[in-house]
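Two records follow; treat each independently.
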Amino acid sequence: MIGGGFGGLYATRELGKGRDLVDVTLVDRRNHHLFQPLLYQVATGALSPGDIAQPLRSIFRRQRNTTVLLGEAVGLDADGRQVLMSDGGPIPYDTLIVATGAHHQYFGHDEWMPNAPGLKTVDDATEMRRRILIAFEAAEREARPDVRRAWMTFVIVGGGPTGVELAGALGEIANDTLRADFRSIRPPDARIHLVEAMDRILPTYPPDRSRSATRQLERLGVTVRTGTRVVHVDDGCVRVEPAAGDGETEEIPTRTVLWAAGVLASSFGRRVADATGAETDRSGRILVEPDLTVPGHPEIFVVGDAAVQPWKPDRAVPGVAQGGIQGGKHAGATVLRRLRGEATPPFRFSDRGDVAVIGRLSGVTNIGWLGPFGRQGGLLAWMLWLGIHIVYLIGFANRIVVVVRWAWSFLTRGRSTRLITGSPLLPPIEEPEPPA
């Protein structure tokens, strides 16, 4: 098992049911499972990293047929059935399950990465939190009005669920959390731009849900710019132009750009494709068989964001947590069925729906199996989001801590983990202003 995300975690759990049939080795280059849907709450100071992560050894300490290894898979010997490791010690396998996920991509502009961090790991989240908080601190100290405005301007690239939730959280930070914390600036004066190249945000949701999300964001002071693509990013500005290419380029002075657009399959997934001759899509995801195995290699499964998991004739399984969870469960169950001599059905994805929270008591849902009740906004959407995330969060203690933090934040409108960590700790000030 390569990868301890949702796909690897649930595949390993499924294989734990076959203690007398299979031995499992789970390899990950990090020692923890991360609940990625709540990363943006770490990035915006609502939760601490430990609230949404659980050590893999702790999760599987009672699963006696499972060995957890901290290491990095760097290659694959498909003929010899060995995973090549960075420490030089190959790991043999009978069956390989690849669940290495994906990371953010910049569509051929990797030079933008230093100035526009994405959000896939704990390190990403704490770096994003540092930049957000540093921006307000810099604006408090900066005397030049144009530089202060740039520090108070935030640009979020990508109008999917992560971008929408980030924009909503930033709006809450500016309008509620930090409202009374500064003396030289008014945090509600912050300008937040959400930029999306398509004609609406949340493009996988029904159009009416996208419109509802837009209205809720605008109430928080977010400027939603659809049909707009980013053409340049540096440490002082973002340039955008109409996605249709029929307008002039506009420059937005800003010192804080947050990236929430596009994903690219992990490097190990691409090495699996090279070693097996498997086809990939533009994002590097492997095109798998209906049972999630690599064509010509029934002993290799690829699940979650590393694969193009089949669903509808014109659409693959979306890159959401449920896709990884269900793909991992299917791969684990298929291995056990094979060993028991049972029939192995193809993978069937069950769409449990989508929920995005936008702010305090607001959000949007698209849950088809709930009928009319599944397309909600506002308070009901927010409550559904709370319940779903608590259910899937790994670790009983984490659930209790998160519930308590959310309850406290709800009552006080505060964010308890507004810590500036990492480097640099101090903002670059061009013209310091004396304290008010």
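The next record belongs to a different protein.
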Amino acid sequence: MRDQINTALKQAMKARDNLKTSTLRLINAAIKDRDIAARGNGGRDLVGNDEILEILSKMVKQRKESQKIYAENDRQELADQEAKEIEIIFEFLPKQMSEEEIKTTCQQEIATLGAVGLKDMGKLMGALKGKYAGQMDFGKASKIIRDLLS
């Protein structure tokens, strides 16, 4: 995944695509920050693809929040820039699950784990995050699980 990002960065620099270049540099910086944090915890040198997917998902979430705030405050040019950055980040994320797919997956996971109440929610969310990192909107999944278990 790192190689994909670095290759895309080189291509963006050659094409003089400033927005894509800056977005990819932000991604690399976030990954390097996580690498440094992991090194400090006395373990690995580099974070794996799962953690990179987590970083990218977090970056998308941050940009969606910023986009909403900019749109509410009549700063459409900044909201559009955030939308473009989201598109760039999505190039490196797996295909996102639809709401129906999320619901089906949640139902299957509830059956697999034998969850019966809201007390099992943490166990369910942990299992989903382990299997579907970067593919699922866990905010939606949380609401769906809450509805299914109550």
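Discussion point: Residues 49-72 form the longest helix (24 residues). How would you locate this feature using only the token line?
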